[in-house]
Design goal:
183 residues; alpha/beta; three-stranded antiparallel β-sheet; 4 helices; binds 1-O-pyrophosphono-5-O-phosphono-alpha-D-ribofuranose; Hypoxanthine phosphoribosyltransferase
Length: 183
């Protein structure tokens, strides 16, 4: 879906599809260099990370394994509930593997801080995070992603996997949601 289809719902467009793809290409080059000679398992965090996983993994000019986890940390609104549950676990045994967790946004950090601690207990060779977006002002838990696309203001953003009540995930760009949509 193009921004023109929902232009009244967006305050602005933060990143276009072209800018996102260019950023993921840059990230892919860094990942290739950092993991050269090592096997790599890329783990996407459902559901928001599907677009980043699709484009980042295809930008990598090397073999990777892929797997998915689904966790729940939010209710249907815009605020974190503080609760993390595994809805779908990995199909892969990660012991001895280099794991790169891919997500589209770090907001409070609750989800990924919990996930990294959970995955670290499974004896992987390493666990790192790649996130397209990070909100430094919202960060409440210690999370240190190895790869960050952009730091953004603490505003409600949608598109490219990011939803509001399951809408806007299929928007090609990332934009700031207009308050009239959620208030
Ligand atoms: C989003 C996003 C991150 C998390 C970030 O997922 O994909 O995993 O929130 O927020 P946090 O840093 O405050 O924990 P969400 O729980 O909305 O599920 P979804 O991916 O299915 O949209």
């Amino acid at each position: 879906m193009d921004a023109s289809s929902v232009e009244n719902d967006l305050v602005n467009i933060l990143f276009t599809e072209e800018e996102i793809l260019e950023k993921l290409e840059e990230m892919a080059r860094r990942i290739e260099a950092d993991y050269e000679g090592k096997e790599l398992l890329v783990v996407g965090v459902l559901r928001g990370a599907i677009m980043v996983m699709a484009d980042l993994s295809r930008a990598l000019e090397r073999h990777v394994e892929t797997d998915w986890m689904a966790v729940s940390s939010y209710g249907s609104g815009t605020k974190s509930s503080g609760v993390v549950r595994i809805l779908k676990d990995l199909d892969t045994d990660i012991s001895g593997k280099h794991v790169l967790v891919v997500d589209e946004i770090i907001d409070t950090g609750l989800t990924l801080s919990w996930l990294i601690s959970n995955l670290s207990s499974r004896a992987p060779a390493s666990v790192e995070i790649a996130t397209l977006l990070r909100k430094p002002e919202a960060l409440a838990m210690p999370v240190t992603p190895k790869y960050v696309g952009w730091d953004i203001p603490n505003e409600f953003v949608v598109g490219y996997g990011l939803d509001y009540q399951e809408r806007y995930r299929n928007l090609r760009c990332i934009g700031t949601l207009a308050p009239h949509v959620y208030s």
